[in-house]
Amino acid sequence: MPPHLAxxxxxxxxxxxxxxxxxxxxxxxxEILVFGPRGNGKTVLLARIAEExxxxxxxxxxxxxxxxxxxxxxxADALLRRKWWVRYLPSQLSxxxxxASWGGREERPPTVEDVLRTRVRRKPLVLLLDEAHTLDxxxxxxxxxxxxxxxxxxxxxxxxxxxxxxxxxLSTMGASFWSRAEQMRIGRLTEAATADALWKPFEEARVxxxxxxxxxxxxxxxxxxxxxxxxxxxxxxxxAALSPGGGQRVTRREVGLARSEFDEARDEYYSVRYREFEExxxxxxxxxxxxxxxxxxxxxDREMAEAIRRGSGTEDHxxxxxxxxxxxxxxxxxxxxxxPLWEPGIxxxxxxxxxxxxx
Length: 359
Ligand SMILES: Nc1ncnc2c1ncn2[C@@H]1O[C@H](COP(=O)(O)OP(=O)(O)OP(=O)(O)O)[C@@H](O)[C@H]1O
Ligand SMILES: [Mg+2]
Description:
By secondary structure, this protein is an alpha/beta fold. The chain contains 15 helices and 10 strands.
């Protein structure tokens, strides 16, 4: 969790109202897909809403990652405590016997729908699934069916978070159903929210921040949440180093001193992304896309496809789409509004690639 979660009031408001509806049993189930390029704050948004929902005694909150629920058995394990299935299983679940032996895995695990039905019988459920773009397709399909069938009658909120390809990934699991789920894009912060994220933690520690220092920090962070945290930490250390006896403050001088630490940390981050492109043989393609972005903030579908063809040498349309999906998964590009218009996913990563990829 960042010291101050800034600029997500409307997103939190939407999530809270879905939780409230499920908690109050006024609506049965709902799904919401939360997606955006890495580093923009999907995980912390889920963590915050989980924390808030957990304080509501009317609902149960479960946070999971796909790696914890790679199949039905793991899903049942994650959602049903033994004492529940001993209580509900004999009459409700189709696993044979008393169900108690299912812990030994010899029995067939209950279906996803049975698991949800059993779990929700106790209390309305908020199920948060991060990194959902890596969800196993088989389990995803089960979850989809359960959500569609049992979900209609059950107080159950499913929150899925992942990369910009989340919807495409879920769609491969069948049905156009997911495309009707609510969608929430998580992109960069506004300048005002970035200023709050940078300034409030200092204020809480009674450290003053000059206006021009704050302006400079907002510009340096590029309103990208991950950089906001890196910069906040670097400036904190610089100002503490300059005032070891107390009386810490932040002016342009402290920010200037923090710059090299921030630049280094940011370059480390870019270099990890760069190596990811390299490992997937995507560097020449990313370079071509980066060059297309050199004098353009936005690329159309056609321009993006041209850049991908130029960089990869492929003419095959399906290949171009697959490469585009990989680029979005890795944070290189995304569509920040519901329009087929592309922007870089991680700010200045394209400058980094242009500078270091010689191709
Ligand atoms: N609203 C915000 N205000 C301030 N800092 C934020 C905010 N959102 C995220 N951060 C910070 O940005 C960083 C990235 O957040 P987070 O890990 O949630 O991103 P993510 O979208 O889940 O990324 P990934 O796709 O790589 O998992 C963290 O250091 C987090 O504390
Ligand atoms: Mg995350």
